[in-house]
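Sample pair:
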Amino acid sequence: ALVVLCDDAQTSVAVANLGEFDQLAQQFYLSSSYLSRLFKRETGTTLTTYLQNVRIEAAKNLLRTTALKSYEVAERVGINDPVYFSRIFKKITGLKPKDYRHSVQNESSV
């Protein structure tokens, strides 16, 4: 089940479709609390942290390759609150989404 989860999470479309833990757990016929414990035991990281990291990696790709606005990127990766998206993005990358896009554009123009 863990391999399927990791494979599904590799695309931003799959990330957006993962939804809540309850829905995810139901896909594997597990309770959400058991899925969380199992995931932590097998990977060493929490399911929440893993999903945040996958979503932010997908967001970084969209910020590099599209002209989508930050809130549109957030929606594409499954985060419906743009303020929360910016906060999580900065927590993980050290930059706001806008600043990340500018830094990537500056690197490619050098």
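The longest helix spans residues 47-65.
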